[in-house]
Amino acid sequence: MNFRARALASAFILASPVWLATPSFAERILRLDESPIGEIDPAKATDYADTVLAVNIYDTLVFPKAGGPGVQPLLATEWTTDGKTFTFKLKDGVKFHSGNSLTADDVVFSLNRMIAMGQGFSSLFAGRVEKAEAIDPLTVKFTLTEPYAPFLAALVRLPIVDSKTVMANKVDGKYGEFGDYADAWMSAHDAGSGAYKVESQNPQSETVMVKFPDYFLGFGENAPDKVRYRYGIEAPTVRALMSRGEHDIADLWLPPEVIRALAAEKGIKLASEAGGATGEYIKLNTTRAPLDDVHCRRALTYAFDYATALKILKIDDKYAQGIPMKGPLPSGLLGYDKSLPDYQQDMAKAKEELAQCKYDPKTSPLDIAWIAEVPARERIALLMQASFSQLGFPVKVIKTPWALVSEQVTKPDTAPHAVEIAVAAVTPDPDSLLYNMFSSKVPPTWMSAEHLKDAKVDELLEAGRSEPDEAKREAIYKELNTVLRDLAPDINAYEFTGVYTVRDAIGIPALEDKSKQTLDNFNLVFRNISVAE
Amino acid sequence: MILKSTLRRIGAALIVMIGISMLIFAIARVMPGDPARIALGPNATAEQVAALRFERHLDASLPVQYFEFLKALSRGDLGRSLYTNRPVTTDIAQFLPATLELVVVSAIIMVLIGLPLGIMSAHFRGRVPDHLGRLIALIGVCTPAFVWGVILQLFFGYFWPIFPIEGRLLETTPVPQGPTGFYLIDSLATGNVSTFFDALHHLILPALALAMSGLGQTARLTRANMIDVYDKPYVEMERAYGFKPFRIATRYAFRPAFIPTLTILGLEFAAMLGNAFLVEKVFGWPGLSRYGVEVIIRKDLDAIVGTVLIIAAAFLIMNIVVDILVGFINPRIRLAAGKG
Questions:
Q1: Is residue A4 pLDDT above 70, yes or no?
Q2: Which alpha helices (DSSP H) does B174-230 contain, by range?
Q3: B-chain residues within 8 Å CB-CB of A15?
Q4: Which comes out higher in pLDDT, residue A404 or B108?
Q5: What is the ipTM of this complex?
Q6: List of chain B residues whose C-beta atoms are within 8 Å of the C-beta of residue A421
Q7: Number of CB atoms found within 10 A of residue A76's CB
Q8: Among A36, A46, A124, whose Cβ lies nearest the Cβ of B41?
Q9: Per-residue model confidence (pLDDT) at position A21
């Protein structure tokens, strides 16, 4: 063969689709994506991807209940509580990926490690747990500093790590005898007992996980043997990959038009995650004129065009990225009151409220910020501008990067009059959402951009924390929901419902059957997902 | 003489590096946003944020922070990324080879296509091949790399799916274990030919997208310089002597015309390290450039400084290499540098 023929042959081989079409006969592979990064150390987990990783690599004592608020057992078989102490019995025979048995000592170690490292969801436990002790290998007892009803739900954020593996991989560090608590090692390896174990980890591009065959709950039919969890793939790339059958589940953050285009392709379907934990709130700064007057705030809540906002989020007749809210509490949390009416635009009522406001709208300019990293929010900001202008307010819309917004909103003087921010309950308890947003005891953060200070709200928030009886708690949160609806610190624009784009070959029971669906973030349980090919 | 001149350039480069480190150190810290808050996530308490600020010396004055940075740097420690929760050196070691491999292949494409395109245009000045070459070069220069990425994905990944469009290897291909992190080199070093071709196959589209702008630039510059040289009397004389056009173009005209192009090539190579960001995003390429932008968005101070220093070092090294190469190609410059 002469040189030219060789070169042509090489070029042909190189460009041949054969290279692409190499099938994986032996394995069922699930490929999905999320925003970077993927943090596999559960003590440092904060984001959506981290939660999905923790759910599949680690186990917790309890798990968010399917089909309603609250928790269900996972590693724990039963528990008792008097409000201040919680005692859990653990399942026998649960093994870590290392082969070590999971015991009460590991639970105590995991809690201590999380609190000591002070990252991730440690704030749910730090200062609240006085003591954690292993009563026997299968019994663990937590003693709290004071009665705290949301503690049980907070345990969904305490993945149990294999203490022996962690200690075997520690290096010198700032935690005394615990060295660095294997801080560095745990960001690249796992020490879990979950259904999947980490095969390789690149926090910026992908985590590859493989089945842990000894998992104590077993696997669903056709569960994936391997999972590739990719990070930061752009929407056009996801679209092309899915069309080629090289990607199975796209993340929740694709724009509606991309989801619509993908859904129109053969072999692709939609699935909705409506765990009812995330509200899209237009936070009104209750300390700056004219919004320090409740009537002006109410006028804005009546003026907002909810129907058009929902129309923007609509994918098709069945799926949308949002549903109406009935108050600040999303539908998946204790205290949600479905008897309340949906919010609707009512300009007559808006003008009535405005007439009672002490400020003249014409001389009270409003500044509305929208987060630059989320282009879809510009549409909502412009919608606000259109609605509020009808009331006579001069409205200025400002595109602001998140780094700046998150700093501005912590100070009443610099927080914009209105900014749309999504806030999610991080545990299946309303306290994890409402306390951070509205308690005057919590130092201001991006979650509390309203800067609301209200004695009644504070009283109800504290009552919700200390009341151990679930029925009474439900009544407290229902009342709180109504009080907040009346105080109007937010325009409760819509409840976020995630829409996944999924290949037909993939079955996600938790998303297909509402009764199996649990809190947002906790539904991608790989062992229950089926890969048909 | 060359050694002395090179040493002098290295000395100057070190001073520039110190200046850049001070500049980027200061700029990163005046960007809006609290890095500790961003790093710890939305649910962190004020105490957690304060603790991290204290641990990272973020409450200290700028000179104190810079001193701490230099102290750590002297131990080879670039600090810890708040984005990945790992040492910045670990991140750079993991992400840099992917970007370097992409940039090197892009540079090869740039040279292999850009130079002949420029030579061809100059040779056929005013005729159809010249118009065609100029058009390609112009489109290459005018179209941003990420647009090329999307176009290439659309044609060769969607309508005619013959190339992979994401990642460095197929999911079924094991990652080659080697010392360099360059999959092409590591796969060959371990004798794994199929992995080599798979890696090369994955490289073609992103490398081409990244190379297009530099390719156009190279072609345009080569054409202009070649035309300049073609008008010189000595080329006229070579024509008069009956030398073949190919020999004139490659042997006598190209060498002097190549000097400005070489300078641009060197700078393009270094610039691609930073500009690869959008191509890496589009192709899901796990490289340093993408990491650099992500850490800027998250105001990850140590990682910003580390990444910028690496890219700055690449610029300076390429400048020195180009200066040396230009000296070899053009003895007048070499001799002048020696005297200077």
A1: no
A2: 183-189, 193-230
A3: 162-163
A4: B108
A5: 0.80
A6: none
A7: 23
A8: A46
A9: 43
Residues A86 and A98 in one domain: yes
A244 and A102 in one domain?
no
Q: Report whether pLDDT(B182) > 60.
A: yes
Are A446 and B41 within 8 A, CB to CB?
Answer: no
One domain for residues A286 and A433: yes
Among candidates B32, B40, B45 on the partner chain, residue whose Cβ is nearest the Cβ of A403? B32
Parent domain of A459:
278-496
pLDDT at residue A18 in the model: 44
Domains belonging to chain B, first-starting first, are: 2-74 (no CATH), 89-297 (1.10.3720.10)
The answer to whether position A14 is within a domain reads no
**DSSP per-residue letters across A408-440:** HTTSTTTS-SEEEEEEE-SSSSTHHHHHHHH-T
Interface size A-B, in CB pairs within 8 Å, comes to 149
Residue A253 has pLDDT above 90, yes or no: no
A358 shares its domain with A384: yes
Looking at the fold, whether A412 and A296 belong to one and the same domain comes out as yes
Lookup result for tokens 């798990």:
A63
Yes or no, beta carbons of A22 and B170 under 8 Å apart: yes
Residue A75 lies in a domain: yes
Does A184 lie at the interface with B, CB-CB under 8 angstroms? yes
Residues of chain A positioned with their CB less than 8 A from the CB of B199:
none
Task: Quote the number of domains for chain A.
Answer: 3
B204/A31 CB distance under 8 A: no
Report the share of chain B in percent with pLDDT over 70.
Answer: 96
CB proximity A126 to B under 8 Å:
yes
Same domain, A396 and A485: yes
CB atoms within 10 A of CB B321: 15
Give domain status of residue A177, yes or no: no
Q: Do A29 and B171 count as a contact with CB atoms less than 8 A apart?
A: yes
Q: Where do runs of H (alpha helix) occur along B75-192?
A: 88-123, 128-142, 145-153, 183-189
Is any Cβ of chain B less than 8 angstroms from the Cβ of A171? no
In this structure, are A99 and A141 located in the same domain? yes
A307 and A264, same domain (yes or no): no
Torsion of CA B243, B247, B253, B257, to 10 degrees: 170
Looking up residue A390, the CATH number of its domain turns out to be 3.10.105.10
Flag whether A188 is in a domain: no
pTM of the prediction? Answer: 0.86
pLDDT digits (tens, 9 = 90+) for A59-89: 999 999 998 889 999 999 999 999 999 999 9
Does residue A86 contact residue A220 with C-beta atoms inside 8 Å?
Answer: no
Q: Which residues of A touch B284 (CB under 8 A)?
A: 205, 230, 232-234, 237
Interface contact A13, partner B, CB < 8 A: yes
Give the CB-side neighbour count of residue A58, counting CA atoms within 13 A.
30
Pairwise CA distance, residues B195 & A318, whole Å:
45
Instruction: Test B43 with A244 for CB contact under 8 angstroms.
Output: no
